Amino acid sequence: MSINDLPVLSALRTKMQWHQERQRVLSENVSNSDTPQFRPRDLVEPKLDKAGAVTGSMGPLALTRTSGSHISPSGAASAFDQNKNAGFETRPAGNAVNLEEEMLKSASNQMDYAAATSLYSKSLHLLKTAIGKG
Questions:
Q1: 31 lies in a domain?
Q2: Does residue 21 sit within a domain?
Q3: Contact 36, 94 (CB under 8 A)
Q4: Do residues 96 and 6 touch, judged by C-beta distance below 8 A?
């Protein structure tokens, strides 16, 4: 087992990669703030188990029929959008990017990324100290 296979480090790497990808998506939203008919996007945060592996579905939630007495979802979309704010503020050209909201998300994402990288580097330093090389 190498030092990179530890569950904590694997989870932190996954989290850092998610933050990097989210930053790219948020940057695209800002850069398309004047593009007609553009809808902002965001990523669903991954859920990690104790081993650091991604669990559960990260896509849109699918409709499920939990009882025979429920109405079946015929003709309707088989999933719904988790972003409740989509299209909240839409300009006449159809663009729904809210720059203030995107900047807040971007700042929050950067702070979370910095926290994850700090935890990763401190974990590595702790492991090096434990084996006598730090």
A1: yes
A2: yes
A3: yes
A4: no
